[in-house]
């Protein structure tokens, strides 16, 4: 490095890509995977994106409570039902699609996401009846 140039942190791009819609986020992550980006950095970016766009994903971590009641699991989604049951179903379907896309781009390597994050992701997948594929 030349004298006077500051070191750029590895995670400088996380916040930028977390503002993208899911389709573009997946394209960016897929492209940087293909270019050989470290799996731990990709995992960290995916975790940040997930926490930002999947409401209720980190509820247990934030509050320290352990809510395991099935009847309360839908309230963890923090989906506001403004009108009809159909609007709720559409919103739930969007959350399911988002979650399934997130799971598909998570790096398979160990230690790319915390165990608590993965457990919360599994809990949300169960709540949303997400696909196993």
Explain this structure:
The protein is mainly α and 133 residues long. It is 57% helix and 0% strand. It has helices spanning 14-17, 22-34, 39-53, 59-63, 70-73, 85-105, 115-128. Helix 2 packs parallel to helix 6 (85-105) and helix 6 (85-105) runs antiparallel to helix 7. The model is unreliable at 60-81 (pLDDT under 50).
Give a brief rundown of this model.
This protein is mainly α and 133 residues long.
List keywords for this structure.
133 residues; mainly alpha; 7 helices; 57% helix; elongated
Shape type:
elongated
pLDDT < 50 stretches: 60-81
Number of helices: 7
Strand residues, percent: under 5%
pLDDT averaged residue by residue: 79
Structural class: mainly alpha
Distance between the termini: 45 Å
Computed over alpha carbons, the radius of gyration is 17 Å
Main sheet record: none
- What is the total tally of β strands? 0
H/E element order: HHHHHHH
**Helical content class:** 55-70%
